Input
Amino acid sequence: MVLEMDLHKFITNYRYVLIIDPEIVKGSAEDFYATYGSAIRQLAVIAKAPSGYVYYNSKVAWVDKNFPDFFSSFTQIGVDIGVDIYAVINVFSDELFGVDPKFKTLDRQKNFVPGYVCPSETSFWEYIAEIAKEVAEMKVKGIILTGLTFVNSNFCMCERCRNKFREWTSLDVPVEIIDPNSSFWGRWVDWRVKQITDTVRKISEAVWEKRKEVFIYPTVYLDSEVGGIANTRVEFGQDPIELSSVTGTMMLHLNPWTPLMPDIDSAEFQKILENSEFIRELKGKGYLTGLYYWGSASDYDLEALNAFANANGIDKIFIYPMYSDIHAKWREYHLRMI
Ligand SMILES: [Zn+2]
Output
């Protein structure tokens, strides 16, 4: 558990945007703003948790029984006193729908990952779009879409994904040959990118119909263990260029699966910087870029995050100052350790 005392350094430095959920802040929104209110300019609040439950009174989603108004109370008071609120929505990371036969995500052996949903079911895109609209109406400044991913390159091999791919290519491709050695692999990777990008398009259009001024930030993983951004595209179906052409923004999640940040003088850090040229490209197009991070957020970590942000012209660093049990579990799925 993070002591609330530790939150000061994220609140008083305006480059950082603290991300909170009931694990990070134990008390009420009233108590939180009474303590920090005069110092806060911006705050990110989890609206839909990886559990699948939401922290506000939703008409469409299941509401968390223990924290039915965590998001809405922090948002409402924050907006009233002039704080910029960013809502965090877990998209395909969803333990409720992840076990539903209609939404399960499968590998070739038909194993499923209980905490994730198949990214090709359009009714699920619409469901998330409805949640995003409800959140947008609470006057948030931006919406951060996280868990916006295929589990890894072994997913998703469910019948719907295979059928949709077959329709898209007009080729009868048996699932057995969809692997990196097959001539179809490149098209399969492109099709997976399309599912993630189309999800973001659907959500963005729904939100902008209500409030055009809301920034939508799709989160993309850049992890030392996974390698460069080309591997992110293959493993997770996330393409920062395509996603940002929809939203005009990009949120880069740095080292989600390698929570220790490298020393800024190390060769490894240099390698990460070399891998981030695409961010400067996006910045050159005038797109808004942010950095997303979860982990211990020690002074050592913050030094690396700041150096990375400086090198790439990134303005804001969103920080969830903890590495939780669920992050450790996701690490195993996303790095194919189980
Ligand atoms: Zn699928």
